[in-house]
Design a protein that fits this description.
Blueprint (H helix, E strand, L loop, with lengths): L3 E6 L5 H16 L4 E4 L6 H9 L2 E4 L11 E3 L6 H10 L3 E3 L3 H15 L3 E5 L5 H7 L6 E4 L16 E5 L5 H14 L4 E2 L7 H16 L2 E5 L5 H12 L4 E4 L15 E6 L5 H11 L5 E5 L11 H17 L19 H7 L3
Parallel strand pairs: 1-12, 1-13, 2-3, 2-4, 4-5, 6-7, 6-8, 8-9, 10-11, 10-12
């Protein structure tokens, strides 16, 4: 019988996911369904199902969005041609890309413009990697962190830049960075690692859990890169670690002869799923919070959405002869609303 659960803090939703979920919630509240979203808004099956139930249609080709319908672009970042096509087709287009992914897109464009060959560390086919490479497809090469540089060759060894998918494991970034610096002494990298703060914090937290746990459970979906990275970090610490979408994924056999279970969640996993996993584990002595840092990052809603909502509010105020024009509406109070609150509006 499991005696205790050690619960990681921070875990679950990061600021980018919070922003994206709240943005799409606004879209389904304002527009009649269907609302279209290019790629899954975040990589979590439970979140995606909730939005599908609310009338969102997720597409993998922007041409599948009917002319004049509202569309949102996912948090993972989109290729420039996709952004342009979405703007041309949609009545209202909102790009919910995470600002940290936008930073990497900017770096790809800037270094390509300066004549650099770009090593982009990422996972083949991941939405974020596809979007970033598309910013400079002629000079950016995807490098799988498990394989290293391999046959990568630069036109000029003094002009090589290294960038990365934000959701990689720290050890994945470091291994390729070390290899690239050895081959290209003048290697350019961002002053701050491309790995996002949430990825780093959650990996640090699971390392702390591993020091005291017999087993690790990571809540998140199969296609969530940062969730899979957490599993790898746990296993690299020498502890059995498993990914579960929810309580139905917990195999009772895993819990045999286990006293302490560490639980965490990927950056796109709802905390409701975490709590239900803990209930399935049923620790006899309860839950202990293991905190490694505080997170207070906040990303504002996308500018297209803010402008649209502010205009809508002004039109409504004018139409009803509002006596207090300019008073803050719900869009200005966004910081006080969490993604969990937003999902509750959808009945989650």
């Amino acid at each position: 019988m499991v005696a205790k659960v050690l619960l990681a803090e921070p875990r679950g939703f990061c600021a980018g996911v919070e922003m994206a979920i709240k943005s799409l919630t606004w879209m389904v509240q304002v527009f009649e369904p269907p609302v279209y979203c290019y790629h899954e808004i975040v990589h979590n099956a439970a979140v995606v199902r909730s939005f599908e139930d609310a009338g969102v249609v997720f597409v993998d080709d922007i041409d599948d969005v009917p002319e004049g319908k509202p569309v949102m672009l996912s948090a993972h970042g989109s290729a420039p041609e996709v952004v342009q096509a979405a703007g041309d087709r949609a009545a209202v287009m909102v790009d919910a890309v995470c600002p940290l992914v936008t930073k990497v897109h900017h770096e790809v464009r800037r270094m390509a413009g300066q004549g650099y060959d770009i090593i982009y560390i990422g996972h083949d086919g991941h939405d974020e990697a596809v979007g970033a490479i598309a910013e400079a497809p002629d000079v950016a090469r995807l490098v799988d962190p498990r394989l290293g540089l391999g046959g990568f060759a630069a036109r000029d060894g003094a002009k090589v830049a290294l960038l990365a998918q934000t959701t990689l494991g720290l050890y994945e970034w470091q291994d390729v960075l070390d290899e690239a610096q050895e081959r290209f002494p003048d290697l350019w990298t961002a002053r701050r690692s491309d790995l996002c703060y949430a990825t780093t914090n959650r990996q640090t937290a699971i390392q702390k859990l591993a020091e005291r746990s017999d087993l690790l459970l990571v809540v998140g979906s199969q296609n969530s890169s940062n969730t899979q990275a957490l599993v790898r970090v746990g296993r690299n610490a020498g502890i059995p670690a498993y990914r579960v979408d929810g309580p139905e994924g917990v195999d009772p056999v895993w819990l045999d002869d286990v006293e302490v279970v560490g639980v965490t969640a990927g950056a796109s996993a709802p905390d409701q799923r975490v709590r239900s996993v803990i209930d399935a584990v049923a620790p006899s002595d309860g839950v202990e919070l293991v905190r490694v840092t505080e997170e207070d990052e906040y990303f504002p809603l996308p500018p297209q959405l803010r402008k649209f909502m502010q205009t809508l509010q002004a039109l409504i105020e004018g139409g009803v002869a509002c006596r207090t024009p300019g008073v803050h509406g719900p869009i200005e109070l966004d910081r006080e609303l969490s993604a969990t609150d937003a999902l509750s509006i959808l009945g989650v």
